[in-house]
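Re: export button greyed out
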Amino acid sequence: MRNKVWLGTAVLVLVAAYAFYFANPNIAVSMFSNAWFLAVPLVLGAMVGVIGERSGVVNIGIEGQMLVGAFAGFFAAAATQSVVVGVVAGALSGIAMGAFLAFTTVKGQLDQIIAGVVINIVATGITSFYYESGKTIPRGLPNFDVPLLSKIPLIGPVFFSDGPIALFALVIALVLHFLLFKTRWGLRTRAVGEYPSAADTAGINVVALRLFNVTMAGTLAGLAGTYLSMEATSTFERGMSSGRGFLALAILIFGAWRPLRALAAALFFGFMSASASQLQASDVVNIPQQFINLLPYVLTLVVLAAAAGRVRAPGAVGQPFVKGD
Amino acid sequence: MADPDRPPAKDASPAPDAAPAPETAPPAVPVVAERGAPPPPTGVLGFLVRHQAIIVPLVAVVLAFAIGAILIRAQGFNPTYAYQLLFTHSFFTESGLLATLQKTTPLVLVGLAVAIPLKVGLFNIGGQGQLMAGGIGAAWVGYALRDLPAALLVVVAIAVAVLFGAMWASIAALLKTTRGVHEVISTIMLNSIAVGIIDWLINNGPLSDPAQPFPASHAVPEGARLTPLGVLPWGLPVALLLAVVVAWMLNRTTLGFELQTVGRNKFAAGYAGISATKTTLIAMAMSGALAGLAGAFELLQIEPYRYQNGIAGSLGFDGITIALLARGNPLGTIPAAVLVGAMRAGAPTLQFQVGIRPEVVDVLLAITLLMVSLPVIAKWIFRRHTVKQTQLAGSWGA
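Workaround output, generated via the alternate export path:
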């Protein structure tokens, strides 16, 4: 029943989007492209949260992990003048940040929220201390057309003519959904996040699985940061993640801890921001720019207030697991 | 954890006959009675364990400065000289000491604004936004009611700032109590929202002073400016007094007892008839009021006595470091705030005289926060006698 509701909603949205497209193709493509452009880091961030929280670890530090990814990617690319090295460095720095969260909370039993806040503050401090102005990278990550798929009207130019990280974000949301609900790893991860002592009794190594998941999820946060500094723009600014890590958390909750719903939620956020900018640009209404920029944050509060009670977090999220406790 | 019947380990209790309760002094830290807690140790370790609320932060600060020294060395500077310069300037020059004390004032208050909710098991990341709300409130009233007598104007401006801060924090509290939105996310969002609204107010909104070359509010009239008495800013005694009052409130009043009980076990508190909703609202409102007051002092006692971008700095986030350094103890926020204030006040000197970026202080504070919150360090010193800290993440899904 619920699946039918979701399918129905998806079809309705698609029909509405195409109606818009046939009414005004140029504006529709530019608005939806802008929406996806804004949604990419949110999708990747939300996937970091999905993996972490499904395994029972809250990750408030996505923001900081992204910031470090943006920093490491950009400056590695600037130092070596190679975008490939930049992307690899961004992903590796994400792993390092993920490992930090994993080892302090899972092994060290540091409170997960404090650990995340520490990550954010440390990331801000380190990236502004080592920041150097005037560095440039040879070029941003290039956009390319996926054969065949990019020919589809509307969907093609929006989703399949972007840079590599945007495409990766789309793919990873689909892959993660499959992994989480159809594979052994997924079942184990969900078990560890719902009821770790039962999982432990069943012979799953709770600590090892949590360490692995939280560490590897860091890759996605690192790539989200790299997207910001190397694909969406080709520059690094201090504090450039500007709250996206927290928006990702809201999207994760709005998306009920499910990858595909989180993808939809991120698109919704992106679309709302894109429409506000569109309204502003077309002089339909005269809203101060500051209020347009505020929209995602206000939307987050509204969405969270609305989602409360309708969705349920994984059972053991936030609680450290002590074997035999 | 520890088994109830397990004999005390050798290193923990050198004198097994000292185990009966009357001989051992009660621990200075209120150890939550835990099933299977080992008997309090004696000797040097006993002394350390009893004072771990002080020792853990000290070790953390020392470790942070050691790591910071390595980073400063890696940048090609002499760390000893840098630290010496930093603290000499902050404590032993007149302008430096004034700057330190001016920073200490809001830092004590925002430290308290994080520490009080921690007692209830809430993590207030929104000190920054609440401080900004207070600051803009004071700026608004300070200019709008400029015809009032100066003394009255100061009082009214402070009252409005306190009210604005409390209201801004109450939004998060209401979202938590009515809709179950976690306060960490809501306060972070409210920080960003405060930044945006204030940016509009002082840029092209009603509070903007068009005569200024950059976005700023109108300055408060001269009579209402709290110019320092020598090196002593007006707000400092107020902040110190409030730290004492908060400590008294938490430890000696019914309200404080209720707050701490909810923080330790909200289900038990519920059975005892203490409303978690009420305590959440009260704790957040108090915390917002304190942060708002910090904003008022930032505005009324520091040049240019008007609201402009950046006057809040990162005070709200330093409040988190301070509260965790103080381990949630209201009186502990005072030394922690003095330390952070001195580092913030000395940072510009480091740049002028040595050429080290002032952001080194951000790094030092971040490492301090990391060190003080890592339980590994406390466990490494105190083993099983480590006092447990508040568990915050458990409330995530609720």
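The CA atoms of residues 256 and 309 of chain A lie 11 Å apart. The button fix ships in the next patch.
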